[in-house]
């Protein structure tokens, strides 16, 4: 699981650097357990734009510690830039503001006064109320520790919920990927089938083209044969007509011969009758 920690931002005046450093050291136990990361402007690397770095770290902080002192309130940047942005994030629920009262000063009617600060009794860390400031720092650190642990619990719950959702989404994604693989396989089969159909279509087109050419050749051959047959028929018809003419001529000749035969028969009969008469005489 992703390591969870709380980002703590120190909003302070440079005049309070020593007190900020003491508070940071009192939070060392939380750092050792990797519960927190602390950031202040002294961590800005050379060559970086300090305003951008401060704004970036202030924007991602989970806890913003306002180290309240007269110097903090007097600083235009601390009061007008850092504090106002911190309060805006606090009101949106994006971060937790904790005013830490370092030195005695009048902050009772300032914008952050409505937010519970530390120490709990509202007594400044450097005031004579404390036997020494380390006791005050210890109380502040313990209160911050409690807030950090609560935030970690909340963060871990959110992270667990997110991981569960991500796990479900990952499973859904795996199922979807498997479905896509099946779909891709089916698509590949479809593509192969399409290629087979295209090849079959091409073969059929080639066969049809060959049949068309063969049909055209056959049609030409039929036409040629038809012309030859027509020529033969025409020639035969001429011969038939000639034969018919010859037949008709023969018929006429036969008729002539028949007529001649009849005439000869008549002559024969006459001759025979003449012969008979001559014998009788």
What would CATH call the architecture of the domain at 6-175? 3-Layer(aba) Sandwich
Q: What value does the Rg take, in angstroms?
A: 63 Å
- Mean pLDDT across all residues, rounded? 88
Helix run count:
6
Q: Structural class of the helix and strand makeup?
A: alpha/beta
CATH class of the domain at 6-175: Alpha Beta
| Amino-to-carboxy terminus distance | 171 Å
- The SSE string, one letter per element, is EHHEHEHHEH
Query: What is the β-strand count?
Result: 4
Strand order of the biggest β-sheet: 2-1-3-4
Q: Please indicate the percent range of residues in DSSP E strands (runs of 2 or more).
A: 5-15%
Choose one word for the global shape: rod-shaped
- Report the sheet with the most strands, covering strand number, pairing sense and barrel closure: 4 strands, parallel
Provide structural commentary.
By secondary structure, the chain is an alpha/beta fold. It has a domain at 6-175: Rossmann fold, CATH 3.40.50.10140. The chain has six helices and four strands, in the order E-H-H-E-H-E-H-H-E-H. A four-stranded parallel β-sheet has the order 2-1-3-4. The longest helix is centred in the C-terminal third of the chain and has 148 residues, at 133-280. It is rod-shaped. The mean pLDDT is 88.
């Amino acid at each position: 699981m992703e390591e969870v920690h709380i980002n703590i931002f120190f909003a302070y005046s440079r005049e309070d650097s020593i007190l900020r450093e003491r508070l940071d050291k009192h939070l060392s136990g939380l750092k050792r357990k990797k519960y927190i990361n602390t950031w202040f402007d002294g961590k800005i690397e050379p060559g970086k734009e300090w305003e951008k770095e401060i704004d970036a770290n202030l924007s991602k902080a989970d806890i913003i510690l306002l180290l309240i002192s007269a110097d903090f309130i007097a600083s235009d940047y601390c009061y007008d830039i850092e504090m106002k942005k911190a309060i805006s994030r606090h009101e949106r629920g994006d971060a937790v503001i904790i005013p830490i009262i370092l030195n005695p000063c009048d902050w009772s009617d300032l914008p952050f006064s409505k937010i519970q600060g530390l120490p709990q009794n509202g007594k400044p860390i450097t005031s004579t109320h404390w036997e020494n400031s380390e006791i005050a720092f210890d109380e502040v650190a313990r209160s911050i520790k409690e807030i950090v642990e609560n935030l970690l619990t909340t963060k871990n719950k959110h992270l667990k919920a997110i991981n569960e959702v991500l796990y479900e989404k990952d499973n859904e994604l795996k199922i979807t990927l498997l479905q896509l693989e099946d779909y891709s396989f089916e698509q590949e089969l479809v593509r192969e089938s399409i290629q087979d159909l295209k090849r079959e279509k091409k073969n059929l087109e080639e066969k049809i083209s060959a049949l068309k050419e063969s049909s055209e050749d056959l049609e030409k051959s039929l036409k040629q044969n038809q012309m030859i047959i027509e020529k033969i028929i025409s020639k035969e018809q001429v011969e038939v007509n000639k034969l018919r003419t010859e037949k008709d001529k023969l018929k006429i000749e036969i008729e002539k011969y028949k007529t001649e035969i009849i005439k000869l028969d008549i002559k024969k009969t006459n001759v025979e009758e003449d012969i008979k008469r001559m014998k009788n005489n």
